[in-house]
Specification:
This protein is α+β, with helices and mostly antiparallel strands. The chain is built from 10 helices and 12 strands.
């Protein structure tokens, strides 16, 4: 009888420790909380990154849309698992003022992670980096460590397994990302009525700030050299009739407007075709930023006279054939 009591106590304490080890403690911030959970299901080990965002704050899908970036997980330092695969539940299409379209999740969310078990002693280390947004976007990074019991809890429907199964059932299967985005339910995110009224009253001030921002932009290194070239072009008209100067300036300005309209049409056509595209989103790609840095470096070295690139003669003859100094078309395309 005494042995049975000791065995029952051992099993009770073992079960309690297994359930306790199924999740880490919450890491909290003003925009919500996040933790790492785990559960066995018929011999399959599942992990999950469990988010509880604050009211109105949201997280991103694997294709975030026109802004933001999805959560990333670094498993370096983990033992006993291999081939972690993050699965993405069906997202919402979040439409913000602009309009700006993003894809993500509002409210409590679990990103299920399927792993293979490679040894009995399982120690999981997960560095989770994510971005949460609403009135602004705030990045966070947390590191979680979790020792997972090797005893499979297939018969015990623990809370963590219910969470993982709930969001695992929302993972699209057999469809492309484009089809998922097209079928996503639309949720419009608006500022409160109070903020909208404040914005309307502040419109003149916003226009002033926009003008000041434009002036500052013209002083940036990527814009100022272009302005100097245009100014040099205008100085070449000294002594000419004022009407010629005005026509040349208007042709140049019109060329700028048409160029941006064409870029906008390309972006709209790409979005209508189901692609995710937005202004400046490429600057979230480290490879693109690195390539751009190299190009700017060589551009600066060229300006400093470290090396020169001789343009082919046929390009000069081609520019001259358009009457570069005379034609309004030349000002338009420049």
């Amino acid at each position: 009888m005494k042995q049975r009591a000791i065995l029952a106590l051992f099993l009770f304490l073992s079960a309690g420790s297994q359930v306790h080890a199924a999740a880490t403690a919450w890491q909290s911030n003003p925009q919500g909380a996040v933790r790492l959970i785990s559960a066995w299901d018929n011999g399959q080990l599942w992990l999950g990154v469990h988010f509880k965002p604050a009211k109105n704050w949201y997280l991103y899908w694997k294709e975030p849309g026109e802004a933001g970036y999805p959560p990333s997980i670094d498993w370096k330092g983990s033992r006993g698992i291999r081939k972690p695969e993050t699965l993405w539940p069906r997202p919402l299409r979040l439409v913000l003022p602009g309009p700006i379209e993003e894809f993500g999740y509002i409210g409590e969310t679990v990103y299920p992670v399927r792993v293979e078990v490679s040894e009995r002693n399982i120690h999981v280390v997960a560095q989770v980096s994510y971005l949460t947004c609403y009135t602004s976007c705030i990045p966070y990074r947390y590191t979680f460590e979790l020792d997972i019991p090797a005893v499979r809890l297939a018969a015990q429907e623990v809370e963590e397994l219910r969470f993982i199964k709930r969001f695992l059932a929302q993972v699209p299967r057999g469809v492309s990302d484009e089809m998922v985005m097209k079928a996503a339910d639309v949720v419009r995110i608006y500022p409160s009525a109070e903020k909208t009224a404040k914005t309307q009253h502040a419109l003149p001030w916003i226009l002033v700030l926009a003008f000041v921002g434009g002036v500052i932009l013209n002083l940036m290194p990527c814009v100022l050299p272009v302005l100097s070239i245009k100014l040099a072009g205008l100085l070449e008209h000294s002594g000419q009739a004022a009407t010629n100067v005005v026509k040349s300036s208007l042709a140049s300005a019109f060329g700028i407007l048409v160029s941006f309209e064409l870029l906008a049409l390309v972006a709209v056509a790409a979005k209508r075709a189901g692609h995710v595209i937005g202004w400046g989103i490429q600057f979230q790609n480290p490879v693109f930023v690195t390539i751009l840095l190299v190009i700017v470096l060589f551009f600066a070295l060229n300006l400093w006279g470290v090396f020169e690139i001789q343009m082919p003669l046929f390009l000069g003859r081609f520019a001259t054939s358009f009457g570069y100094h005379e034609s309004l078309y030349a000002h338009f395309i420049s």
